[in-house]
């Protein structure tokens, strides 16, 4: 979730931002860039806090609203689905109305639906509100990225890479905040904390955030967006219902029907992309010039990064019986490790290129995943999980800045389009991973062991992602 999508001046991207001047010596940084970065960073922090604090409350929400755990997992995945679906719309809206107003509008809507989530009385209502939150975030984050990219000019690669330091801060504070709220109050308060933060961000944004230059109005690929929506929703419903097979009710017919929708819509979407040059996802950015390998690697990396973070608190509770606060604290190691390693990684990018950092980071993440999956060797479960997540976090801090820049230098004139694809593919991988893991845990007679096996599978997938990423040409220096 640390990727930011933005848009070019052509209507063929998945992404979401007004364009900027071309990179180079004639694109100097703007004077207000640090103040703008601070406002945007706080908005991303609010988004990160929301995601990680909710992860600690899945079992509590499930019990309070009387929902099975597989459906409760949609509290997380619905927000991610909404974010993905908003990316192509965010670009068109930013080009039409301006990145500044899309950023402010996204913050306002995110805050509003946070409050509505807090007062949800059923799992269906909560999922709907979370989906709307994801839509707002999907509009807000790409627009914010475009604003920052314009402000930093030729240094935008490092500015955007530094966004990786914002999300881990939320990953530290979010589980702690969620655990404290659950211990002292109720899960409803997890969403209410966004109200004062949203109000402050709106006030600061009105005063400080400028509007980047706007291109001409772009033609939106409505058919492509509709097909993409059907594909993603069909896929997510299929994965969720797989965990309910064998339970009383029409699980099998619903699963088969949603799978048919996902496959059918996906096939038509691929054909549509091949035939339309200005498709919402251009074919040449899917498969050309090494980007195909990077896109596939991003799906797998998203499955690991997002899937692990969202389900670790649940795993800690069902396997080791930890309280929500203690389970949330386990993510602190990952966040601290990511922050510690990401800053040196940003500095090293122009010297070593992305490949050495990615391969070293992947090896550390695999080590951390396997460690969390196996029983503690003579130490407490809390200490063992904390050590494993810290190693995983150090690896994540190396991988994310490197992978953010891995494909963009291949098409330097279409950085926004590649950025949009990156966040979309990672979120897709993350959604599938979260839904699959929660479904497997809820359906298993030994949910803790099932969760550990799922983490080992994530480690295997990450090895595959590293193999694919190694095929992308390395690049040193500016791009």
UniProtKB/TrEMBL annotation:
Gene3D superfamilies: MFS general substrate transporter like domains, Multidrug resistance protein D. The keyword Mitochondrion does not apply. It holds the Pfam family MFS_1. The chain crosses the membrane at residues 32-49, 69-89, 101-119, 131-152, 159-181, 187-210, 222-244, 250-270, 291-316, 322-349, 356-377, 383-402, 423-443, 449-470. It is a multi-pass membrane protein. SUPFAM superfamilies: MFS general substrate transporter. Keywords: Cell membrane, Membrane, Transmembrane, Transmembrane helix, Transport. Residues 36-477 form the Major facilitator superfamily (MFS) profile domain. Residues 1-29 are annotated as: Disordered. It comes from the Bacteria. It is found in: Cell membrane. Residues 1-12, 19-29 have a biased composition (Basic and acidic residues). This is MFS transporter. It comes from Pseudonocardia nematodicida. The lineage of its organism: Bacteria, Bacillati, Actinomycetota, Actinomycetes, Pseudonocardiales.
